[in-house]
Write a structure and sequence with these properties.
The complex is a heterodimer of chains A (516) and B (132). Chain A is mainly beta. In chain A, 12% of the residues lie in helices and 39% in strands. With 132 residues, chain B is mostly helical. The chains are: A mainly beta (516), B mainly alpha (132). Chains A and B meet through α1 of A and α1 of B.
Chain lengths: 516, 132
């Protein structure tokens, strides 16, 4: 075989060197992002830079035309592994929606208790309600009949709480108790609860005091610290009090239950008003007893009745109260399958991990719930109480995916307040965006940021919602090439950042599941 | 000009492209593997590793069209020992690295080890040439 000409050989080599050099520059450019901007996009099918496949895989399904992914379950997670630090991440979801009432975008803020910071993406109810609209900043106010000229006037002199519904509105809401009395002794509630909880209470000016007796069951590997934070209603930026209980010293998953320990939080000079108590803990922490000074204390959104394995041989049915328009129950274990009594009817839990729904009559109806076996996570758009005496519901009704205009009529709701912006749409394809500050985000154990695309209730309604693409845009101050290169080489080998707890969110949402 | 003579004239060029492409792709793969150790995902998040492997296999196959080298027995044996040691290391490293993918681990490991062996076979076959 004859050889090739020198010109050809040199040309091919020069071209190869240029291609390799170009590739290196391209990769460095993405890693350094000298202009402070990086964009990555996925269609959920093909491998995409920095973005994982959708998780869990069984919650999405490629459509027949292969152009989108239909959501089958809630939520779907995407992990984003960044090559460098950025200040913000903007998530842009392009989708086709045929009937799904609610869509939200969230980001993991706390890995310990799986709290996500959720941002509304689309609410069909808010978009279609033919009420008078007025907005100020992010806050949108809808009125059945226009009674307030502005959001500011509304917040200054709000109507009675029972006339108002809200949707992810971080606005202060004044509570005016009809009757209120200070408790003489500490209330004792010994219903076992599992993991994180959010408690709502009211202080008329007496010292606020809550005490939790906890047990670390060591069923999963890793440290299990407990943080109890107290937030004053409407001032949810900073906690007014916080107590941390360190791990019991056993970080293994040997299922050895620790001794009982107590974590308490107090606010001696509490001003009168509503307080949120955020009990932040992983699922290994079980609350065995709770004591509090306040006359009223309810659990907001969810209540996880725990098993007694490794604690006690006695397992009596747990009776709690729920005040809301719906109840969702699910258990993680076959042993937890049971018939839960909800008022006069029975909600049969037939399959582990599956959400089972019970519909209550009204936003504020109070119904007793009895769980014979416990080991069940109860969720509601309202509140739970461990004792009927503890019950109060000072917040406006929260609208959910199943809320309809007729529900609002029936409940006598005249105002709807939300932090919401209608997504861009050309009539068929919609694009919703949400921006998160990375300093407020936790990472997975692999050092990735985790985002959730949530279509609440979609596994129940089977509505057709198709995701076409998800685009992440990361931004930070421009660095230029020289500073960027220096930072890049300084960072090499330092490994991925591992942020377990970025912030504690008094309004975050937990999906109560662990996804790898 | 007969068809056979045309092919005979074109083949060296194809082989040359294959050889240079193979070395270039191997360089990219080496950079990728090195960067993966210090900054996971930096290269293979942007350049699909399966794409690199595919180009490497194609270029390696084309490079086999070049003239065979004539090496001495000692040189060949030494080359074989080093090649086998590196290929075994690559196979072992791939098996360890993809531990988190229990279902795909086997095929990925075979692919990585196979690619490494192909690399060495192709490099071994390529002859030193003097340009005209």
């Amino acid at each position: 075989m004859n050889g090739v000409g020198k010109t050809f050989a040199v040309s091919v080599r020069v071209a190869a060197v240029l291609v390799v050099a170009g590739l290196v520059v391209y990769v460095l450019s993405a890693a350094i992002a000298p202009e402070g901007y990086l964009r990555a996009s996925t269609d959920l099918s093909d491998p995409a830079p920095f973005i994982s496949e959708p998780k869990p895989g069984n919650r999405v399904e490629l459509t027949e035309d292969g152009k989108a992914h239909r959501l089958l379950g809630d939520p779907v997670y995407l992990d984003l592994t960044l090559p460098d630090k950025y200040e913000t991440v903007t998530v842009e979801v392009a989708y086709l929606n045929q009937g799904q009432s609610l869509l939200e975008i969230g980001a993991l803020a706390n890995r310990l208790d799986g709290q996500y910071d959720m941002v509304p993406a689309e609410s069909r109810l808010l978009d279609t309600l033919p009420w008078s609209r007025v907005s100020s900043g992010d806050v949108l106010l809808l009125q059945r009949r226009k009674e307030y000229p502005s959001v500011e006037e509304f917040l200054k002199a709000p109507p009675a709480t029972i006339r108002v519904a809200s949707y992810r509105a971080g606005v202060e809401w004044p509570h005016r108790p009809v009757s209120w009395s200070e408790r003489a002794d500490m209330a004792v509630r010994d219903t076992s609860l599992r993991g994180r909880h959010r408690i709502l209470t009211y202080s008329g000016g007496e010292p606020l005091a809550f005490s939790f007796t906890v047990q670390d069951m060591n069923r999963q590997a890793g440290a299990d610290p407990v943080t109890v934070s107290v937030y004053k209603g409407g001032e949810e930026k900073d906690a007014v009090a916080r107590t941390v209980l360190e791990d019991d010293g056993n970080t293994s998953d040997d299922q050895t239950s620790s001794s009982l320990r107590t974590v308490s939080v107090t606010v001696p000079d509490a001003d009168a008003g509503i307080y949120r108590i955020e009990f932040t803990a992983p699922g290994d922490i079980f609350i065995r007893k709770m004591m509090f000074r306040q006359a009223k204390a309810v659990f907001l959104g969810s209540l996880y009745l725990s098993d007694h394995v490794g604690y006690s041989d006695r397992l009596e049915p747990a009776k709690v109260m729920v005040s809301g328009s719906s109840l969702v129950a699910r258990t993680s274990h076959i042993e937890g399958l049971q018939g839960i009594k909800v008022g006069d009817s029975v909600l049969e839990l037939k399959e582990p991990h599956l959400k089972h729904y019970a519909w209550l009559d009204d936003f504020r109806v109070t119904v007793p719930v009895v769980s014979p076996k416990r080991d069940v996570l109860l969720e509601s758009d309202g509140v739970f109480a461990l004792d009927p005496d503890d019950l109060f519901n000072p917040l406006p009704a929260e609208i959910d995916w199943h809320t309809t205009a007729e529900d609002l009529d029936r409940a006598g709701i005249d105002f709807l307040v939300a932090e919401y912006e209608t997504p861009e749409s050309d009539g068929v394809r919609s694009v919703a965006t949400a921006t998160f500050e990375t300093v407020n985000l936790a990472t997975t154990e692999d050092g990735a940021f985790r985002f959730a695309i949530s279509a609440p209730g979609i596994e129940y309604t089977q509505k057709d919602l198709r995701i076409q693409s998800v685009t992440f845009t990361m931004r930070r101050a421009p660095t230029g090439w020289s500073v960027g290169l220096r930072r890049f080489f300084e960072r090499l080998g330092s490994g991925a950042e591992d942020t377990v707890t970025a912030i504690i969110l008094p309004h975050g949402k937990s999906y109560g599941e662990s996804v790898e | 000009m007969s068809e056979g003579r045309t092919i005979e004239k074109v083949l060296p060029y194809v082989a040359e492209l294959g050889m240079v492409g193979f070395i270039a792709t191997a360089s990219v793969a080496a950079i990728g593997v090195a960067s993966e150790l210090v900054s996971p995902g930096l290269v293979f998040n942007l350049v699909a590793p399966q794409g690199i492997a595919a180009v490497m296999v194609l270029a390696g196959a084309l490079s086999l069209l070049s003239e065979r080298s004539r090496r001495g027995l000692t040189e060949s044996l030494l080359y074989a020992v080093i090649s086998l040691a590196i290929s075994a290391s690559v196979t072992f490293a791939a098996w360890r690295y993809f531990e988190a993918l229990p279902f795909d681990r086997g095929i990925i490991t075979v692919a990585a080890g196979g690619t490494a062996i192909l690399v060495f076979i192709a490099a071994f076959r390529a002859a030193r040439r003097d340009f005209r």
